[in-house]
Amino acid sequence: MPKLKVDGIEVEVPQGATVLQACEAAGKEIPRFCYHERLSIAGNCRMCLVEVKPGPPKPQASCALPAADNQEVFTTTPMVKHAREGIMEFLLINHPLDCPICDQGGECDLQDQSVAYGRGQSRFQENKRAVTEKYMGPIVKTIMTRCIQCTRCIRFAEEVAGVEEIGAIYRGENMQITSYLEEAVTSELSGNVVDLCPVGALTSKPYAYEARPWELRRTLTIDVMDAVGTNIRLDSRGRQVLRCVPRINEDVNEEWASDKTRHAVDGLVRRRLDRPFVRKGGKLVEATWDEAFAAIAAVDAGSSVAAVAGDLVDCETMYAAKALLASMGSTLLEGRQTGMDYDTSSLAAVNFNTTIAGTEEADAILLVGTNLRWEAPLVNTRIRKAIKRGAKVFAVGPETDLTYKVQWLGADLSVLGDLPDAVTTAFGEAKKPMVIVGGGALKGGHGAALKLAETLNLVRDGWNGFNVVHMAASRMGGLMLGYAQKGGIADLADAKLTFFLGADEVDFSRFGGFKVYVGHHGDKGAAAADVVLPGATYAEKSGTWVNLEGRVQRGERAVFPPGDAREDWTILRALSEVVGTKLPFDSLAGLREEMYTAVPALRHEGLARFEWNAPALDATASGVMDGYPIKDFYLTNAICRASPTMQRCSAELIHGQDFAEAAE
Q1: pLDDT in tens, 492-521
Q2: Which residue among 37, 331, 360, 479 is least enclosed by CB atoms within 10 Å?
Q3: Is the peptide bond before 54 cis (omega within 30 degrees of 0)?
Q4: CA dihedral in degrees (618, 621, 627, 628; nearest 10)?
Q5: Burial, 661: exposed, middle or buried (Cβ in 10 Å; 0-12, 13-18, 19+)?
Q6: Burial bucket for residue 250 (CB in 10 Å: 0-12, 13-18, 19+)
């Protein structure tokens, strides 16, 4: 490990570290534009110049210079100061004075560093150059005259997103960053380039001209658009969420977020349920809470009561519904609303045991019935990192573009019983083998996939390579709370009274009894219900969610629900006084204490450990997959379907619809 001095401070850094990283280890701030910790080194902005001895008598780019023994680095000498001022002058030659109208204002690296490291005045009188705007799709707004050619967006598209659709054309002063043929960028992670851009060249198109950062109230919470459990920050003003950005969590999402996570928030204020409704004469009519509760209490259901949890529901809501049903003498609970009925006797057998971060360490990977690019985009990026370390990837299912090289084994699940030699050889040599089973294979291939855990030796000391990838934020929490019937949702069809907790993907024609929808959007569930009780979205309540790897995480409320809508658990608590026994909690803290007593694993944030005890299932796999569960990445739930941005993304990026862009 190299030892060197930074401004007289001796530091020791890992082999391969750069001088810039050594400076940071010594507590020194080094300005930079092109360098980013998660991207390859470009070394083209030159803002990170430092003086190094021994070495040439000129400043050197610290981001591209390896740290070595006996180096002396100086970060504040007159030479370094003069060099940084010169670089900043050059960067600002053609940069427009757009700060008052730029969406990056207040969060701009160029602003901050020009104040901290610039000269303070300009010596240039020549005309500035202008660059025509580029079209990058419905997510990213471009003002390319502001671009300083740091190339972060290019490197992100190639290295992380795996979609090589952003690049540079021309040379020197004429260099421009553009998407391929100025078409929309088709990556589901394209919004991350807005966070990466150190100036205002790439900004968020849906958020354009909406607010300034100092106007917003920041709330830390958890994303529910998929089962990854992306850590996010919701920025709100008044009673509306205006923006969603990712938080850094190395174990879950690093610092990325999918476009659905970022931009579905404009659906939070559209198509909302803001008052109760009761069906009269075949039509839903507005009602008071008392009238809605009375209509439910009038149903003579006895103990024939069921609850179906939707994909976005928090654990507190599911526990309150479970307690309500228990007071009515029922245990009919189900969270797999689309009809899956896989074995849940062992949670380890339906968990992502390797963990999301652990995926990077795998050296042989078999994907079974999963399109990870849409089902869990931020797990897909981890597989790309594993491939860079030498991992081989095989897949069973219909061929699709996963952004990396895959050896496809066909779409017939029977191949699990007779894997090709190339697969068995790769897994036989692997130190950390990994199988990922998706929703497309769970029905016909769960037993065969579990058999692979034995035949491919996936479970070893310190390593469990068997994984199931879920697509719903509520799924693992629901399974921990018992939301699973042996026959799946079919076991609930005959119930006389059914509560649908934000469940919109159910085949409602199978339910003949009285239907109560507790949710937040006027979607499929509300249209089929006999009584509609307006609930709160994930942004409007504090809640607990468990991601696909069994990680317990909590989110906070950012805004209040609209109109007469209430937090879901409070609705169920109030209803219990009318239809049965009053539930034994009056506050969120009280509910949580009851929930922790019932399921101790939910008490503490972090990974809930499930002991590996795979059930003995029929290992005969059969059936040919004709597709994957998610047909449209951008319209997977009620919030997305209410979002104009997600509708535009679906129309343009999935269905190929053309949109005319007005000249600006």
Answers
A1: 988 999 999 999 999 999 998 999 999 999
A2: 37
A3: yes
A4: 40
A5: exposed
A6: exposed
Distance CA 545, CA 222 (A): 8
Q: Is 482 left (phi over 0), alpha (psi -120 to 50) or beta?
A: left
CATH number belonging to the domain at 124-204, selected among 3.40.605.10, 3.40.640.10, 3.30.70.20, 2.40.50.220: 3.30.70.20
Q: Reply yes or no on domain 353-468 having CATH 3.40.228.10.
A: yes
9-42 pLDDT, tens digit each: 999 999 989 999 999 999 999 999 999 999 999 9
- Summarised one tens digit per residue, pLDDT across range 414-451 is 899 889 999 999 999 999 999 999 988 888 888 899 99
Q: Do domains 3-92 and 124-204 have the same CATH topology?
A: no
Record the tokens describing residue 162, joined without a space. Answer: 């795996």
Q: Which two tokens stand for residue 547?
A: 């991601």
The counts of H helices and E strands in the chain are 18, 29
Predicted confidence (pLDDT) per residue in 335-355, tens digit: 999 888 888 999 999 999 999
Closest among 458, 261, 254, 444 to 357, alpha carbons compared: 254
Of 322, 319, 227, 314, whose CA–CA distance to 555 is shortest? 314
Residue 83: closest CA among 30, 124, 46 = 46
- The CATH topology of domain 3-92 is Ubiquitin-like (UB roll) (3.10.20)
CATH of domain 289-341+474-607: 3.40.50.740
Run of H or E residues at 383: helix 377-388
Please report, for the chain, the start and end positions of each structural domain, with discontinuous segments joined by +. Answer: 3-92, 124-204, 289-341+474-607, 353-468
